[in-house]
Give the backbone structure.
Amino acid sequence: MSPALTRLITDFEAGKFAALARAVSIVENHRAGFDLLLAHLHPKIGRARRVGVTGPPGAGKSTLTTLLAKHARARGLTVGVLAVDPTSPFTGGALLGDRIRMEQVALDPGVFIRSMATRGSLGGLAAAAREAADVLDAFGFDLVLMETVGVGQSELDIARTADTTLVVLVPESGDSIQTLKAGLMEIADLYAVNKADRPGADRLRNEIELMLGLRMGATNNVPAHHGVDLRAIADRDALREAMQPAKAARAAAQRDDAEHWTPPVLGTIGAKDEGVVELLDALDRHFAYLERSGTLRSRRLSRLRERVVEIVEDRLKRRLWRDAATNAWLDAQLPRLETGGGTPFAVADELLAQSGELMTRGTA
Amino acid sequence: MSPALTRLITDFEAGKFAALARAVSIVENHRAGFDLLLAHLHPKIGRARRVGVTGPPGAGKSTLTTLLAKHARARGLTVGVLAVDPTSPFTGGALLGDRIRMEQVALDPGVFIRSMATRGSLGGLAAAAREAADVLDAFGFDLVLMETVGVGQSELDIARTADTTLVVLVPESGDSIQTLKAGLMEIADLYAVNKADRPGADRLRNEIELMLGLRMGATNNVPAHHGVDLRAIADRDALREAMQPAKAARAAAQRDDAEHWTPPVLGTIGAKDEGVVELLDALDRHFAYLERSGTLRSRRLSRLRERVVEIVEDRLKRRLWRDAATNAWLDAQLPRLETGGGTPFAVADELLAQSGELMTRGTA
């Protein structure tokens, strides 16, 4: 370990924010020594509660994250915030404005805020976010909030690295049922219907609860509303009517199964700081459930497993493609590939057959 | 090769669209035999011109793609269209509406249209799009249009697999200079300013040309406007004034260097089918430049290289993680990782050291 890295770790362990910021940079950009640093911090990882905050653009995720940090501080918790924006290049401008709102908590020494943008590929960003969260965890923050700014698969990937995933929706976010069908429902542990004072908020909450009720009902073999086509429920009264048995089924499911978690749907008004304390309470209840049911441990074990898988794949790639002879050999095959005298599959197999020693040797 | 696959290839080579559709599905989803199929088609790949169409949401990419297909047909070319949408889950609804517009060309037997959505990870989608384009190429289409629907890094990745990249912008797409700075300018071979009859279209064209002129100027050591802060040019007159020397520098750059391509900026009005024939002419000019300069060959060689790299990495991962003993060994390490008795890095190195034989053996 270099003297600079040793000094960094000493400062980090003394709780210096400058060292924390540098450590996150080193890890985020995979600078020299990042793996030594992470390996050193590894035994300190696992104390923090990690909450992912995701949802469509404009839902007010940044405001809610700021308020969650504020109220958690009021309860004596220290808070690390990672704001991750995978949507550049087209919408790269949004982040700065959001960050400014963070200033209301940024001067508090119990809060650390960090923005991250695209690193290399999107898969790389989810890995970088998890590693950065590891650093915040090792630093000793009680709560790590991982907020994603944009849309898409990478948000789901980032959310999956958290203990708890909060999905923020707003009445105007469009076809909410469509949204929920498309993968978000699988990862949501809590829902916040933000801007709850706007028209359509009740309807959105009802729709989410109906979806949840149907799912719970299905899980618990409650026959009510199997096969209901939600898209066919056009008006509000019909929706409300359809909702009642589903709600009952959901309540029954909650009563019947103490090991089961039904995602609550909470109304919030970020702009007025309303409903956020209740949201924090719900996060607490979810964490208690995670501990009680053993889900926390299984989620963390699978996160450790993914971590090893990523490192293995990363090292394999580096060993292969940083090898000059392998690259020269591959370049020499390109002309025959071009003329159809070989296929990429055959060339790949040849390359693999001759690179065994390269991939298993002890140096990265 | 299975009898079903042999039959598929026979039908594919006879030009049957049903076989083409099945071949794309097999390749897109990496179903059994996809690698045999791609290997078989490999010698037929390399005839089609591949054009990527990208840009922010709402720019009218789908309409322009449809019109490009229509006008290319009028010139006697056959056209394959791949519409790729990596933005699910949050905006998954947009695609269908766009597809309906495609119907005006969809009944033409010289046109094949295919939508693709997220497959696994986003990196996977770019690979899948390139493989699907390979299938269209091998089928014999003269022109393959690869349209991306959403925003982000994955669009850039997909665009990079094309011979020519067309970037579509609209006056209302916001801070255009910001957009251009953020990576798009590096990949654009042509710009279409669509909805060119709307306010701000001239300004957007001017801004793009100014950016291009500055870049050309820098490349050719023309001192004019080095270090001009475009954000400081607030009003239109100032912008126009600043533009003139840049334009001159650009014209000089074009005259001086026949091997160089300066991306043209064309106005189009998709809704009125205006400017699309000129856009197609510009695509022809770019293809002629690619052939003349040798860039076409170097782009295609690097695409073949990337193809081999992807296959190698994919096979390595499959060999490793489909091995039951490796997985069992990794699972057995998790408890000591959890208690800090080992680090993910050390476990990864151990795994690599013992998996050499696995990774180099001849079966995938």
About this structure: Residues 91 and 171 of chain B are 22 Å apart (CA to CA). Chain B has 16 helices and seven strands. Strands of chain B lie at 49-54, 79-85, 111-117, 143-148, 164-169, 190-193, 265-267.
